[in-house]
Amino acid sequence: MVYIVLSNATANTSLNKFKSVVETVKELSDEVTFSFDQNQISFLAMDMSHVSLTQLCWASPLCDIYQVQSETQMTVSLKLLSKVFKCSQKGDLMSLTYSPGESRCIVAFGPTVDNMTSVFHLPLMDPLDIEQLQVPDDLEFSHSCSYNAKEFETCVKNISSFSESCTIKMCSKDCFLKCDQAQFKMTNPAEYQFDSTLEHTYAVKYLTVFCKAAQVSERCIVHQDENMPLCLVYPIGECSSLSFHLAPKLDDNE
C-alpha cells in the first residue's frame, strides 16, 4: 500500500515542485515507472528518441505524509498526470493512493486530507523495462560547476536563437555556453571543480527542456567529463534531485 500527501504548506512548496517535475519530464518521456521504497520516490526514464536519461530522487521528508509498506512500482502517463494536476485549486493538497496489483491509482485534491473535493482514478500503463536503464551511484566527473538555474536557462535560450547546438566549455574558473555566432559566460559560480579545459557540444532542444527544471531548483550543477554524458543536476531540498544525462553530439567526421 502506498499513501502519500504533498502540499505547499511548508517552505519547500513540495506540491508545486512535484508538478513542475511532471511538466518538465513529460516533454521527454510520456510514460515513467515510479518506484516507491521506505526512503523515497524515484524514477529513471529514457526520452522517446532514446537520447537522454532523466532521474528523479524525491526523498520522503518532502512529503507531508509518506506511507509505503513495501517496495513497489507503478507506471503512469505523465501527460495524463499533468492534466490531473491542472484540475487542482490554489491551496489544495494532493494525496496519491496505490495498492500493488491494482490497475489504477487514485489522485485526490482538497483543502485537507479529510475533505478531498476532487478525485481521479488514473489507469496504469504496462510496466516499462527499466532494469536496462542504470546510472551508477558513484559517478565522478573531472569538471563540475554550480550556477544559478535561471541564468543557465537564459544562456541556453539565447544560444537557441542562433543554433541547434550548444558547446559547454569549462576552462580555468570559467564556464562558457557558445555556438558559432554567440558566446555567453556564466557568472558567479557557487562552486567549481576543474583546472583544465574541457568542452563538448550538445543538442539545444534537449538542453532547453532540461532548463525548465529551474522551476524546481534555484541551482543547476553542471558535470562534464571526457568520455561521459553531460549531467545536469537540479537539487531539491537537501537529499533530493532531478537529473538529466545527455551524450555529446558527434562531429560530422566521426
From TrEMBL:
Protein family according to the UniProt entry: Belongs to the PCNA family.
Domain Proliferating cell nuclear antigen PCNA N-terminal residue range list: 18-126
A GO term from the CC aspect: nucleus
Cited PANTHER family: PROLIFERATING CELL NUCLEAR ANTIGEN (PTHR11352:SF0)
One function term, GO molecular function aspect: DNA polymerase processivity factor activity
Location of the Proliferating cell nuclear antigen PCNA C-terminal domain: 138-249
Pfam families reported for this sequence: PCNA_C, PCNA_N
Keywords: DNA replication, DNA-binding, Nucleus
Organism of provenance: Catenaria anguillulae PL171
Compartments, record wording: Nucleus
Gene Ontology terms: biological process: leading strand elongation; regulation of DNA replication
Broad class of where this protein is predominantly found: nucleus
Annotated function: This protein is an auxiliary protein of DNA polymerase delta and is involved in the control of eukaryotic DNA replication by increasing the polymerase's processivity during elongation of the leading strand.
Protein name stated in the entry: DNA sliding clamp PCNA
